[in-house]
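ESCALATION

Customer reports they have been waiting on this structure for their group meeting. Please prioritize. Original submission:
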Amino acid sequence: MYQEDYILRMIRRLAEALAGWQDRDNEAERAAVDQALQSATGLSLDTLDALPAQALLAMARRSVGDGLVEQRIRAMVEALEAWTAIDPEGAPARQEKATALREIIH
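Update from on-call: job pushed to the front of the queue and completed.
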């Protein structure tokens, strides 16, 4: 229970960091997102960007076994979509990955 509460708090923190990054696209905001993403999902932005959707799903499923796989995947989707809006370079691949992950949880 404590671990689930912690992960949910980290996911909320990620959402706040993503909002800040979208408002102010700078290295400090990106670093805050990276740290929050790592706390919530165990992945850095660079890892999230590099791995295919199926590998990300496998990693989320192997996480702790706390029943928060869907929330972790949603956090990944939110990060990918925010990054797509901020940085058009690589946007099609990120959006495709976000769509694939979203389909997995619906």
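Sent to customer with the following note: The helical segments are 2-23, 27-41, 45-50, 53-62, 69-86, 91-105.
Escalation resolved.
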